[in-house]
Write a structure and sequence with these properties.
2 domains; 4-stranded antiparallel beta sheet; Dimeric_a/b-barrel; transcription; alpha+beta; 3-stranded antiparallel beta sheet; Arc Repressor Mutant, subunit A
């Protein structure tokens, strides 16, 4: 085994001699840093250091190590979809005609090009993919389904359901 990064990310070799990622081991200070940054990533390093009871230099070193190890993938501004006129949140189940690698890749590449698709998951069970799509209204959904989704070669079945109310939306991962 060999260690990568200062945050303790580890790569290990499995039986077939392929390198695979093992979850990064984080201490309680790293977890506090992540918890705070997941809630408010706009904090200055000085304020973050104060909240985790470190001086600024070691705090920044820990953040940089978490970034280098890929634990922190980036920083974003969370926009309010309603304020932007994107009031319809739709969950779409998609089944393909064939579940072969080339068809899966074609579908995934097509979804990566669709700005309406917020999330796309390859699923087990009745459908092949689950999408979360955000559009302004029913006409926007119709345009997405008719002009984009149904035109992808290999799409066999499309089923959708609408979110009536968002009960919980969270971006912070549970850190235990």
């Amino acid at each position: 085994m060999r260690q990568i990064g200062n945050a303790g990310g580890i790569m290990c070799c499995n039986r077939n001699f392929l390198w695979t990622n093992v979850p990064t081991m984080l201490d309680s200070t790293d977890r506090r840093i992540l918890s705070i940054l997941q809630t408010d990533s706009s904090l200055t390093n000085v304020e973050l250091a104060r909240r985790v009871h470190l001086s600024p230099s070691p705090c920044l070193a820990r953040v940089k190590a978490l970034e280098a190890a890929g634990v922190i993938r980036g920083y974003v501004a969370l926009a309010d979809p309603l304020q932007l006129g994107l009031s319809l949140n739709v969950f779409i189940q998609v089944s393909l005609e064939k579940q072969v690698e080339s068809e899966l890749e074609r579908f995934q590449n097509a979804m990566a090009e669709c700005p309406e698709v917020m999330e796309c998951y390859l699923m087990s069970g009745d459908s092949d993919y689950l999408l979360r799509v955000v559009v302004p209204d029913m006409q926007g959904l119709e345009r997405f389904v008719v002009s984009r989704l149904s035109r992808i070669p290999g799409v066999r079945n499309i089923r959708s359901g609408f979110a009536l109310k968002q009960v919980k939306y969270q971006t912070a991962l549970p850190l235990g």
